Structures are given as structure tokens and as C-alpha cells.
Amino acid sequence: MLQLSFALSRHVLLRKRLLASCKRPAAFMSTLLINQPQYAWLKDLGLKEENEGVYNGIWGGRGELVTTCCPANDEPIASVRQASLEDYEETIKKAKEAWKIWADVPAPKRGEIVRQIGDALRKKIKDLGSLVSLEMGKIFVEGVGEVQEYVDVCDYAVGLSRMIGGPVLPSERPGHALIEQWNPVGLVGIITAFNFPVAVYGWNNAIAMICGNACLWKGAPTTSLISVAVTKIVAKVLEDNKVPGAICSLICGGADIGTAMARDERVDLLSFTGSTKVGKQVALMVQERFGRSLLELGGNNAIVVFEDADLNLVIPSALFAAVGTAGQRCTSARRLFLHESIHDEVVEKLAKAYAQVRIGDPWDSTTLYGPLHTKQAVMMFLDAVEQAEQQGGSVVYGGKVLNRPGNYVEPTIVTDLPHNASIVHTETFAPILYVLKFKTEEEVFAWNNEVKQGLSSSIFTKDLGRIFRWLGPKGSDCGVVNVNIPTSGAEIGGAFGGEKHTGGGRESGSDSWKLYMRRSTCTINYSKDLPLAQGIKFQ
Ligand SMILES: NC(=O)c1ccc[n+]([C@@H]2O[C@H](COP(=O)([O-])OP(=O)(O)OC[C@H]3O[C@@H](n4cnc5c(N)ncnc54)[C@H](O)[C@@H]3O)[C@@H](O)[C@H]2O)c1
User: Fold this and answer.
1) Which of 197, 394, 415, 419 could join 223 via S-S bond, C-beta 3.0 to 4.6 A?
2) Which of 52, 149, 296, 427 is catalytic?
3) What residue ranges define each of the domains in the chain, with the CATH number in brackets?
């Protein structure tokens, strides 16, 4: 009992220390990173000490001033003036007006402007990638990778701008044509999460634009500088092409602005990326007004390793999926199911691989593993480790906060939990991997599917029959179903998204563009008669 209360008070003290270190008195403002010579490149992205967080053709913002902090050292970077509700109102009106012009631009011309956005991003890829590292906390190559994704999806969208179209269907009536016509929905609201502060906007923005929509973006408040820097690049392209900047409006803000977007009938499609908890509230608000939403919510992704798997693929895959981005990808592996015959060997090899992971400043080119994004995330990590232990888990690697500035925690492996322990069924957005033992294909496929989320999943096997059972109706129920590769690291060419509590949305490649358009079924009579369908005579 005494031991327990000691542990609890230690936990409370740690919480207090963590919370205290995020609060920055005004005196710290003079030491903003943007003013230090090694971060001078921030100014090349058009950033200043205090930035305006609203863009609708002109820059502004009358809301709260938010200073974002670097997760690797707790230092304040620069500030962004968020949007007030008045700014929101003004911006949405301008975005709706801008749409009227944009919808009349032929799709291939829209594609040409999106191509220029891709080129402008290419030129800034290093600086923008560095900003992602500095403000979000992911390692530099992943920061650059995010901008690359936006570039890639721009290229994809350029091609698509000459290809979107509907079929001409056979009509049962003589002298009639039956066609499907696709039109833009109008204004696409885009709310994004902190963990992909460039790519997720890019997936939505490039496709929505070539479809003929205007966009209104609200990023996460903790990555506001990234939202401003991206919008500066996009805005310049729009302005150079003499089309209204409000086609790509930005409205930095928190839950108040997000809620306003969800409730607003003028937002024709609301694309929301974030947690299942907030996504559900947003979906209900949109549904209440019979609006359209596209939901990209939480995951609880599993890797299943069969006895015939190539362990040379398994170990680096599990490492990348669980430890990459410090476990802060929606597709991060949270559950690792190992066949009982290889369980101990894989755990031992994986723990050795974890010990090799180079922890450091995310912008240092040798670093593989950086900090968590916020202090709250560190607390969630600690809570989850504590709960895992209470539910019977054994921490075989990590489990602790690292004693250094910033939000660093140890990448963590937990064994011995039952597959249905409540903590295993919870998405903790941190690098904790639950390793679970299984005996049969049937049970492990069922366990893969038993969580509420349905985003990503992978199996490792050489058995062809098993691979096709995994892809088939009784296999994985996720939106992303992989074989012999990790759960994370999707390509833009495919449709991305997940089922069940992941929300059912699809973004990026394949035919995801259809979600950004409305379909009309059109029947045109070019004869002099009026035959009715189904042979009905009305005379
Ligand atoms: N499926 C995917 O494609 C995908 C991709 C990235 C992240 N995610 C998920 O996002 C989560 C992590 O991101 P997070 O912590 O930023 O998520 P979050 O739900 O806390 O926030 C997401 C966004 O919603 C906004 N928001 C908060 N309250 C709101 C409200 N009441 N109304 C409208 N908007 C509101 C936030 O400001 C932010 O912009 C994880 O669950 C992760 O799995 C999913």
C-alpha cells in the first residue's frame, strides 16, 4: 500500500513537472527560436516573430496569439495570431465567392495551377521539412517525406484533371442518352491533425482543387507555423496566376473554429482528420445538418507474424511501424501478434533492434527517433504503461520518460497481455507496442478485427492461400491490408482510409476524388417522342 501511494505521488510530481515546463512566461519571447541565427531559414519560409493565421486573399487574424514550442527542447519558436469567429465569417464568405470563379476554370487549367503548387513546394522542400521537424517533432527525413507526399499528390492531381469523367450508359429508351456528370461540391472544409501537418492537407487540397472546389483549412493549433508556411507557398502561386487567394483559405484556430466549420451549412464537405473522439462529435454535427463528411480517424493497427515468415523482413518492419515517428502515425503498429512458436525469438530480436535506435534531435540527420509532440502525450504514454502493467503486462523494453529536455519517452515493448485487454484495444498515440501470442490463423484474423478501429493491418507469411484469405471477405476488415510490409508508409496512388471507428473515409489516390464531387445522373431526350421508363404508358 505504502509502495503504491509512493508510486502515485511520484506520478503526480512528474505530471506537475511536465505541465510546468510547457508554460512559457512572456519574458521568454525574446529568445524565440526564430530570432536565433541557426533558425534563420524560418524567415525564408516567410515566417516572422508574430504571424497572421488567417488567409482569404489577404492575411489577418484577430484571435488569440499562440506561441508554438519545439517538442525536442521546449523552446518557443514563433507565434501565430489565430482566427476569431469574425475572421471565420469573413473568410468563409470570401471562399464561397472565390469558388464561383474557380468552378468556371476548366479542370486541366486548374491542374496546371496545382502543378505550379507542386513545383513551388519542391523548391521549399528542405525548409518546410525542417519546419515539420522543429514544430511537430518528427525526424527530418520524415518531415521532408511529408512535403514530398504533397508534391506527389499534386502530380497525381494534374493527371487526374484531364481524366475525371462519368460514363455514358445505355438508355432503355430510344433517342435518349443517359450520362453521369460530376460537379464540384463547392467549399471543402479541411480540419487536420498535428501528426501530418503538411501531407494530409496536401492530399485533400490538390484533389479538391482539380475537382473545382475552394478549400478552407484549419490545422492543429500546435502546428500553426506549418499551416502558415504552407499557405504562403500556395497563396503566391494563386496570386501569380491572378485567381482569388481565397480558393485556398486558411483559418488557424482550435475547437471553436472547428465546431463552427462542422455546424456551417456553407461547408459543403468537411474532411476531418483526427481522433475518433473528436471525429465522432464532428460527424454528428455535420450529420445534424445533412452535410457531407470525410472522416480519417484513429487506428489500432496490427502486424501478424506467422511461423513461416521471413524474420529479416519482420524485425525492421515492426521497428519502423512501432517506433517510426515515435509511434505518432495513425498507421503505427500498436499490436504485434506472434505465432507461439516464434514469439520468444522475435521479442528478443526486436528488443535488440530497439536498443540500436538512435534517439536525438529530430533535425539531426543521424537521428531515427525524436520526441512526442506534447507534454500531454507524455502523460498519456505514462498512463498507458501503468495501465498495461495493472492489466498483467510486462514491460520488456522501455517504459520510462527520458531525462533530457523535450518530450522524449523510451520506445516501449509490452508482453504477456491478453489480446482483449482494454489497454490493447485503446489507441495510445505513443510508441508502445503490445506483443501478443497466437496459435491459429482463424483466431488471429478474428483478433486483428476485434478492435473498434479498422485502419491498417499486415501479415508476414509465405503461404499463398493464407495471403488470399487475409485479403478476402473473412480476412482483415481494415482499409489498408498489407502483406510482408509494415502497417505504416502508404503510397499516394491508392485510396487511403479505414473502416469502423476509423470513419470510413478515403483520401488521396484511386477514385477518392469522387468524394470531393457530387454526381448527377442526367437523361437527355433527343427524339420527338416521350417514352417512359419501364414501358409505362401515361395517356
Ligand atoms: N486516419 C487518418 O488518416 C489519420 C491521420 C492522422 C491522424 N489521425 C488520428 O489523429 C489523432 C491524432 O491527432 P490529434 O491529437 O491532433 O487529434 P484531435 O482529434 O485532437 O485533433 C484533430 C483536429 O481537430 C480539431 N478539433 C479539436 N476539437 C474539435 C472540435 N470540437 N470540433 C472540430 N475540430 C476540433 C483540432 O484542433 C485538430 O485540428 C490520432 O487518433 C490519429 O490516429 C488519423
Assistant:
1) 197
2) 296
3) 52-296 (3.40.605.10), 301-491 (3.40.309.10)
